[in-house]
């Protein structure tokens, strides 16, 4: 039985939880001031304007406490629940960057009940005293069911629509491969299911992660803050081909978060094995996905180093109910969310695809 504690846990956090965001804001303020002195005509980054949300907490069967955030539906809205899940090591900024460039706000305006999914790999998740697993399998087996149960209790809908970027879609795919039936439709944004080339960096990351506790957090958000004015922008440039320097620095400052080692470990193993697999490496989730019947809308980009079209080919060619959108070489990994052209080229097709399936949220699964 999945327990769903009320909002109290958020208020019970120690004072250090409040001090950390304050210290980070002060550091960013100093960074922006230094940048302004050297570049008076160019801002360091765009100002992040997040959509107001309400916080809810859920507990998983293995003892983790996870934050869910909800954009309360507009009065009179139909209120079908849509879950937004971000890429590994990124926060809500990628799906809610600016008022005129926000997939979250677009869906809210269309009458959906929008939820942010934060799994055990995110910095705000609270681990139990004894941790058994902290990886993709655990997210799919424990975190997603806990979140879906809470969403059903609040919204009254039997199923949800799910939009995931990168690992945000991959964990949902694993959940479906394991028999999950509470997702009425899945939009996969640049999320690979096969990895034809083994990357040296991924192998090194996997070997390092194997020696470290899976619950340890890698402070890549802090590193991104330091690198934002200079080298960081050039590091992520191949992943943001159609975005300018200002948008790249905004991503580094507002969109990068710490990540737990266990998720890095399993993700690195995928690159070595060449496909989505369980933590033991014996179950090929990519094969299992060919037999599930949940509708999927798979988006890939020819210019994406992490998810070119061939990285989703087994899913597009093998799944029973799968549609696809292939973007050209001018689109990188984050461009479908952050590019100035994303609203018309990517967000509009997603909205149309969801609209054709929103009524299925109110119907109990039949398969």
Counting structural domains, the number is: 1
Overall outline: globular
Number of helices: 14
Number of strands: 10
| Residues in β-strands, percent | 5-15%
CATH homologous superfamily annotation: Alpha/Beta hydrolase fold, catalytic domain
Which CATH class applies here? Alpha Beta
The run of helices and strands is HHEEEHEHEHEHEHHHEHHEHEHH
From the N-terminal CA to the C-terminal CA, the straight-line distance is 22 Å
- Mean pLDDT, all residues: 84
Q: Tags for this entry?
A:
single chain; 367 residues; alpha/beta; Rossmann fold; 8-stranded mixed sheet; 14 helices; 14% strand; disordered N terminus
Description:
The protein has 367 residues and is of the alpha/beta class. The protein has a single domain (42-362), classed as Rossmann fold (3-Layer(aba) Sandwich), CATH 3.40.50. Helices cover 38% and strands 14% of the residues. The protein has 14 helices and ten strands. It has helices at residues 8-11, 16-38, 103-109, 136-155, 167-177, 200-210, 220-227, 231-235, 245-254, 261-273, 285-289, 313-318, 335-338, 342-355; strands at residues 54-59, 65-71, 81-85, 113-117, 160-165, 183-189, 217-218, 259-260, 296-301, 322-327. The strands form two sheets. An eight-stranded mixed β-sheet has the order 1-2-4-3-5-6-9-10, sandwiched between helices. The longest helix is centred in the N-terminal third of the chain and has 23 residues, at 16-38. The protein is globular and about 60 Å long. It starts with 7 loop residues before the first helix and ends in a 12-residue tail after the last helix. The relative contact order is 0.14. Mean pLDDT is 84; it is low at 1-16.
């Amino acid at each position: 039985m999945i327990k769903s504690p009320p909002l109290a846990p958020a208020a019970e956090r120690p004072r250090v939880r409040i001090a950390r965001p304050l210290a980070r804001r002060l550091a960013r303020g100093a960074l922006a001031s230094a940048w302004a002195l050297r570049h008076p005509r160019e801002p360091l980054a765009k100002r992040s304007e997040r959509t107001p949300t309400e916080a809810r907490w859920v507990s998983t069967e293995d003892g983790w406490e996870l934050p869910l955030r909800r954009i309360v539906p507009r009065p009179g809205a139909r209120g079908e629940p849509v879950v937004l899940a971000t890429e590994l090591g990124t926060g809500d900024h990628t799906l809610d960057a600016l008022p005129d460039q926000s997939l979250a706000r677009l869906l809210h305006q269309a009458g959906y009940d929008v939820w942010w999914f934060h799994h055990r790999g995110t910095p705000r998740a609270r681990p139990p005293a004894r941790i058994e697993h902290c990886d993709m399998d655990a997210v799919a087996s424990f975190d997603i069911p806990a979140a879906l149960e809470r969403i059903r209790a609040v919204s009254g809908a039997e199923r949800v629509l799910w939009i995931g970027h990168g690992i945000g879609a991959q964990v949902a795919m694993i959940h479906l491969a394991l028999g999950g039936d509470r997702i009425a439709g899945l939009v996969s944004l640049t999320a690979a299911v096969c990895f034809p080339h083994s990357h040296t960096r991924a192998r090194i990351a996997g070997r390092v992660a194997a020696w470290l506790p899976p619950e340890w957090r890698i402070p890549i958000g802090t590193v991104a803050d330091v690198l934002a004015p200079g080298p960081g922008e050039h590091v992520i440039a191949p992943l943001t081909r159609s975005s300018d320097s200002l948008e790249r620095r905004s991503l580094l400052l507002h969109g990068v978060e710490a990540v737990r080692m266990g998720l890095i470990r399993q993700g690195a193993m995928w690159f070595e094995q060449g496909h989505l697999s369980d933590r033991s490496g014996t179950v090929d989730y990519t094969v299992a996905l060919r037999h599930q019947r949940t509708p999927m809308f798979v988006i890939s980009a020819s210019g994406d180093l992490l998810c070119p079209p061939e990285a989703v080919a087994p899913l597009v060619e093998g799944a029973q109910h799968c549609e696809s959108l292939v973007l050209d070489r001018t689109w990188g990994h984050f461009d479908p969310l952050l590019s100035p052209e994303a609203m018309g080229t990517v967000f509009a097709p997603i909205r149309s695809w969801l609209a054709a399936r929103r009524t299925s949220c109110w119907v109990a699964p039949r398969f």
